[in-house]
Amino acid sequence: MKAKDAMTSPAIAVPLGASLKEAAETMLEKRIGSLLVVDEKGKLVGIVTESDFLKEKAIPFSTFRAPLLLGRFLGREGVERLLAEAQAVRVEEIMTSPVHTVAPEAPLEEVLRLMLDYDINHVPVVDGEGRPLGIITRFDLLRLLKDRL
């Protein structure tokens, strides 16, 4: 089998400059664990996954903990400032780049090797110009395995 036989298509993407709120809303709405980031020409430049939202840059000074642990020290204005900082973060600040990708004709063994070697869960499938055609996730591979059992 080839990558094109296992990929989910189309891959969902946001442009450079998208806010984390926009990215999170898209991921939640589409029920997906990753989001591709593309430039103005539609070329893949990065990937944002669920775990990227837990990075320090995505959650300045731990926005989730700040109201609970620091609210009494920072006061309402301090907590609001932290939330405003989080809203100003853009996807390119937390995305992984460069991205491990495969061509549509790549054998599935190559996809599996990338996932295992780099401990990643998502491998975008791109055309010759680097534009996303789809994505293969570990869930996609599990579905293929189940169909063969």
Give a short overview:
The protein has five helices and five strands. It has 149 residues and is of the alpha+beta class. The longest helix is centred in the middle third of the chain and has 23 residues.
CATH-defined architecture: Roll
**CATH topology-level name:** CBS-domain
Overall pLDDT score: 85
Q: Which stretches are poorly predicted, pLDDT < 50 over at least 5 residues? A: 61-66
Strand arrangement across the biggest beta sheet: 1-2-3
Number of strands: 5
Major β-sheet profile = 3 strands, mixed
Helix and strand composition category: alpha+beta
* Total helical elements: 5
CATH evolutionary superfamily: CBS-domain
Principal-axis shape equals elongated
Rounded to the nearest angstrom, the radius of gyration is 18 Å
What can you see in these coordinates?
This protein is elongated. Residues 61-66 have low confidence and may be disordered. It has a single domain (3-148), classed as CBS-domain (Roll). It has 149 residues and is α+β, with helices and mostly antiparallel strands. It is built from 5 helices and 5 strands, in the order H-E-H-E-E-H-H-E-E-H. The strands form 2 sheets. It has a 3-stranded mixed sheet. The protein is 40% helix and 17% strand.
Element layout with pairings:
Blueprint: H1 3-6, E1 13-15, H2 20-30, E2 34-38, E3 44-49, H3 66-88, H4 108-118, E4 122-126, E5 132-137, H5 138-148
Parallel strand pairs: 1-2
Antiparallel strand pairs: 2-3, 4-5
Notable characteristics:
149 residues; alpha+beta; CBS-domain; three-stranded mixed beta sheet; two-stranded antiparallel sheet; 5 helices; elongated
